[in-house]
Amino acid sequence: MRALIDGIQKGNFAVFGRAGMDMFADPQGTKAEHAEMFRADLGGSSANICAGLCKLGMQSALVTSVSDDTVGRFCINKLQHYGVDTKHVSVLGGEYRVSLAVYESTMDDFQLCIYRNNAVDFQVTNEDVDKVDYSAFGSIITAGTVFAAEPSRSSTFRAFENARAAGIPILFDIDYRPYSWPSAEIASQVLSRAGDESDLIVGNDEEFGFMAGGIEKGLDKARELAATGKLVVYKMGQEGAITLSGDQEIRTGIFPVTAVKPNGAGDSFMAGILASLAEGYPLRQAVLRGSACASIVVSKPGCAPSMPTKAELETFLSDHPGPTQE
Q1: In a 3-state reduction of DSSP, which class is residue 260?
Q2: 94-121: average pLDDT
Q3: DSSP string, 189-242
Q4: If 7 and its partner were Cys, which of 16, 153, 169, 222 is the partner (CB 3.0–4.6 Å)?
Q5: Does 326 have pLDDT greater than 70?
Q6: DSSP states of 123-178
Q7: End-to-end CA distance of the chain
Q8: Is the pLDDT of residue 246 over 90?
Q9: Strand 139-143 relative to strand 12-16: parallel, antiparallel, unpaired?
């Protein structure tokens, strides 16, 4: 556990996974099918984590591929706008494309439409991940979507091997998206392997349940992983989270807000926990700060643009009632 915290406290993260374009209906409250205007910004789980970390004062580099077109260049420009290192973002020609997410800023029958045909982020190769200087980072992060197809599945496990060789910890957000996978059976096998090879695992009750073969078995699965020496954060939506470290279980609540969308919360939660641990906050407080980040994101339009800065997080914590009863 000490090696995990030491790695995180270096505050410099290599993140593997996708960058995408988000388009969300404007103004707030407009249903997408009735929209006359959309705002565009950075999206994609791993890119969002990168942006969230940078806005909280950390350093992050994204390892991914984008398409050689205007949307790919848009993503690179937005990553750089948020302070993310794009040295390891490959640009690919041909028919591969950056993912596009179209959604709205209203919880009234919220709709999210994701286009993932010929997803370019799945094209990250062993050669790409071998170019990374792992010794320059304190830890690596990946979101589970990267494992849904080849060659990125094998190359990310290769990155795990490289991280182990460099002596840096592996941080894993399960982030199970059924539409990306060829079958639930393959997803369960691959995500379980990723969990086994990671030092920190973050997921919700459904994701742990999926890995265990039933949602009712999710918490037992999280406890089983924690018993092997991993740090595990078991998210339960409105019920808060249980953080497991050895035989210790820390229950934390959430910060109630008026949500305008559900997406982006998990990415901000991950960034908030890691940035707080990097700054030396105790585990319980780090998880609560991550929960505050998640609440901030769901209360505003967009994902990357709604990730809080350090000042915005502190203002929220000082002004907002919460967390809920734990």
Answers
A1: coil
A2: 96
A3: HHHHHHHHT-SEEEEEHHHHHHHHTSGGGHHHHHHHHHTTT-EEEEE-GGG-EE
A4: 169
A5: no
A6: G--HHHHHTS-GGG-SEEEEEGGGGSSTTHHHHHHHHHHHHHHHT--EEEE----G
A7: 25
A8: no
A9: parallel
Average pLDDT, the chain: 96
Among residues 115, 117, 67, the alpha carbon closest in space to that of 90 is found at 67
Angle (CA) 307 308 309, round 5°: 125
* Residue 297 to residue 309: CA distance in whole angstroms: 11
Q: Whole-angstrom Cα distance, residue 151 to residue 160?
A: 14
Q: What is the CATH number of domain 2-312?
A: 3.40.1190.20
In the chain, how long is the greatest CA-to-CA distance? 53
Assign 1 a pLDDT band (cuts: 50, 70, 90): confident
List, as one string, the DSSP characters of 279-322. TT--HHHHHHHHHHHHHHHHTSSSSGGGSPPHHHHHHHHHHS--
Q: Give the residue extent of every domain in the chain.
A: 2-312
| Predicted local distance difference test score (pLDDT) of residue 219 | 94
**pLDDT over 90 at 137, yes or no:** yes
Report d(CA 65, CA 86) in Å as an integer: 10
| pLDDT-derived band at 215, boundaries 50, 70, 90 | confident
